[in-house]
Design a protein that fits this description.
Elements: H1 2-8, H2 11-36, H3 38-63, H4 69-80, E1 83-87, E2 93-96, H5 101-116, E3 121-125, E4 129-135, E5 142-149, E6 155-161, H6 163-213, H7 229-282, H8 284-298, H9 305-336, E7 345-348, H10 349-359, H11 361-367, E8 370-373, E9 380-383, H12 385-402, E10 411-419, E11 424-432, H13 438-441, H14 453-458, H15 465-476, E12 480-485, E13 488-496
Parallel strand pairs: 8-10
Antiparallel strand pairs: 1-2, 1-6, 3-4, 4-5, 5-6, 7-9, 10-11, 11-13, 12-13
Helix pairs in contact: 2-6, 3-4, 6-7, 7-9, 8-9, 10-12, 12-15
């Protein structure tokens, strides 16, 4: 039922039904005209022909025209199926169009006698002639009969049978029925062609409009060379599609920018909250120390010059730590929230590693740890050398702090492993020592997380070195992490090669 309803919504079906209905109405109109008008028109035409014959005969006798009247009357009789009879003043038949004279004479006499009676329908009557429609009681044939008196006194009778007109109407109606069937078949062919020419473009425009409603502007109407309303509509649809697509893209870009602004403000607010929280948490201890030693100086707890100097040095040291912590926190916040731009360039990672080792030489000597750089060949990478130096420096500093002698070995090793297929190099920093507990492996990357609070504070650590590593590597989207080895711990990171 639903398919049936949908079918009637189709332009093709509507065209077919409309055209078929128009054809049927035209055929019905022709049948009505044929039944009610054609007979009257036929009688009118034949009546006019009868009058024309009367005028020809009357003019002939009045003017004595030099024409062959008998030949003219014979032609008229044959062409119009007339029976013509002319009688002179002595009631003698001087011309009849019917070769069977006696039969014609009898029929005409009977018709004349009936004509003079009140039977029949008078079609037209004037001073010199009368035209009636009459029916022969014997043959049931209906005639139109003209009875006229010529100017010379002769009598003229003309009759024409009209019963055949009814048969003609019937045949004509049957022909019209037949033509209606053929017309509907032809209409189906025409509608098929018309629907392809006009329906298909309309359907295509409808599909394009539906796609546009779903914000899909990839479909366009194929413009043809025809200069018609459909082609112009297609041009307008395409123009509207382009403008809508452009407008929506602008709105989307504006929306994206707005979302970025909102996200940026949200990140700034989050960064501010996090910064305040971290600073307030981490500065409690140094502030407490500064406050205690300051009060001691003010109250002259120790009058000894050397002790007062020690108090002042503690205050200065904690102040420097506070300053360094705040700066590191600000830098870390910028890295974590994407507010720091990287100046990437090509550089040799091996040379950078050597430079980091050189700067850490004092710490290495204090720990009495051997340093090994396993890869000495040139390896060029593409990154920001300033931040990569901080990553490796944090890894190396962390390794130096935790290096211990294991199985009579105490060393730190830096190794570079190149993976040409992935276009990466993995930098590994290994130190002999104790493994990191599994539950702490994920925590060590968090800000201010310290496995050993007392030892880290004594070493002057802030607990955000590995957070720097995480923030920098996250900006690059490269792998980093830590693995426990049999005799120590290995930190690693990956960089993009620049071959």
């Amino acid at each position: 039922m639903e398919k049936f309803k949908n079918a009637f919504k189709s332009v093709r079906v509507k065209l077919f039904m409309t055209l078929s209905l128009v054809i049927l109405l035209i055929i019905l109109f022709l049948i009505l005209v044929n039944n009610f008008v054609f007979g009257q028109f036929y009688i009118y035409s034949k009546t006019k022909a009868l009058k024309s014959v009367y005028e020809v005969v009357n003019n002939y006798y009045n003017n004595s025209q030099n024409i062959d009247l008998e030949t003219q009357l014979e032609k008229m009789a044959i062409n119009n199926n007339f029976d013509i009879l002319i009688r002179n003043n002595q009631n003698v038949n001087i011309y009849t169009s019917n070769k069977d004279f006696l039969s014609t004479l009898g029929q005409m006499d009977e018709m004349t006698s009936r004509f003079n009676s009140d039977t029949g329908e008078v079609l037209e009557k004037e001073e010199y002639f009368t035209i009636k429609k009459m029916k022969d009681s014997k043959t049931s044939i209906t005639y139109i009969l003209l009875s006229a008196t010529l100017d010379n006194g002769y009598l003229l009778y003309i009759r024409i049978p009209i019963t055949s007109i009814q048969e003609s109407v019937r045949i004509s109606n049957n022909f019209l029925y037949l033509m209606a069937g053929f017309a509907i078949l032809i209409a189906a062919v025409i509608v098929s062609y018309v629907s392809r020419k006009f329906g298909d473009p309309i359907s295509e425009l409808n599909d394009i409009a539906k796609n546009m409603a779903n914000l899909d502007f990839s479909h366009k109407y194929e413009i043809t060379g025809a200069d018609d309303e459909i082609n112009n509509l297609g041009k307008s649809i395409n123009a509207m599609s382009d403008k809508l697509e452009k407008t929506i893209k602008q709105l989307r870009n504006t929306n994206i920018e707005l979302e970025k602004d909102i996200e940026e403000k949200s990140q700034i607010d989050e960064m501010r909250k996090s910064f305040i929280s971290d600073v307030s948490h981490e500065l409690k201890t140094p502030i407490a120390l500064i406050q205690g030693y300051s009060e001691g100086l003010l109250e002259n707890v120790n009058s000894d010059e050397e002790n007062r100097k020690f108090y002042a040095e503690v205050i200065l040291d904690e102040t420097n730590k506070m300053d360094r912590l705040v700066k590191q926190l600000l830098e870390l916040m910028k890295l974590e929230y994407g507010k720091r731009e990287f100046q990437d360039k090509k550089f040799n990672i091996v040379e950078l590693e050597k430079e980091v080792v050189r700067k850490s030489q004092v710490m290495l000597e204090e720990k009495q740890a051997e340093i090994k750089i396993k890869t000495l060949d040139e390896i060029n990478v593409f990154a920001d050398d300033f931040y990569i130096e901080q990553v490796i420096s944090n890894y190396l500093t962390n390794a130096i702090k935790h290096v211990k002698e294991i199985n009579a070995e105490k060393y730190i090793q830096i190794e570079n492993v190149v993976d040409v297929e992935k276009n990466k190099v993995r930098v590994k920093v290994f130190n002999t020592g104790e493994n990191i507990k599994e539950e702490n492996i994920a925590r060590i990357w968090n800000r201010f997380y310290k496995v050993d609070e007392s030892r880290n504070r004594a070493d002057g650590g802030t607990g955000i070195g590995l957070s720097f590593v995480r923030a920098i590597m996250s900006n690059y989207g490269n792998v980093y992490g830590v693995n426990n080895k049999e005799n120590g711990v290995e930190f690693y990171l990956e960089l993009d090669l620049n071959i």
